[in-house]
Every structure is written in structure tokens, then in C-alpha cells.
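Appendix B. Raw example, untouched.
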Amino acid sequence: MAVNDTIGDMLTRIRNANLARHQTTDVPSTRMTRSIASVLKEEGFITDFEEVGEGVKRHLVIALKYRGKQRRPIINRLQRISKPGLRVYSNRRELPRVLGGIGIAIISTSSGIMTDRNARQTGVGGEILCYVW
């Protein structure tokens, strides 16, 4: 089945797996989903990810992270901001702060996919893909 919004599909799969308390979830592999997964790993929202399969059948296996004996998810909310029907851009001075800096905004810049904090340090703006907290 063809998916038009691979980022939205990825966020929904992670959100659903978190609610069901799964250890891992599968996401179709694209350059964008790999970049977003690496940002989530760097920021400590997921444990790890790996790419499996060959050719068109490649997908990412994302290992989710939980805390405590009750297995409360580390990711409380994933919110898609820029959608295929309405793109949302921001310059470097207007980059959003998610929950006063507790969460992150994932930004697609000319220097690659990065967090809002890194984009401010680099001095670049771009498309606001999603918020994670």
C-alpha cells in the first residue's frame, strides 16, 4: 500500500506501539525516516534502530524506550506539524521551543534533519516536521 505521508505514518506507528507497550515497531525505511530515527536516538527518546531487508522491502526496526516497572513510555506525545497539505516553515529567529525546552522540534534544514536546539546553534531555519515530548 502506498503511503503519501511517510513521516506521519512513522509517528503514528511509534505512537500506537507506545500505547500498546511494544518493545519494537516496524517503519518503512526512507532517508527521511532514518534521519528522524537517528535524531530520536540522539535525544534519548528511543533505545536504538536498525535497517533490515533488501531493496524496496527495507524497513526500520525501532526499539522503544520505557521507564520504571509500570513501563511508562519515554515519549509522551508525537505531534505532526508540517503536513503534505500545509507546509510550515520557520526562520532561525522564530524556531519554536517545545514545552519551554523540555521537548524537541524536529526541523528539516538545508544542513539536514536536526533538533530546534541544533538549528538555533547552527543559525539555520527550515521546515518544522514534528514536536516530540
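End of appendix B.
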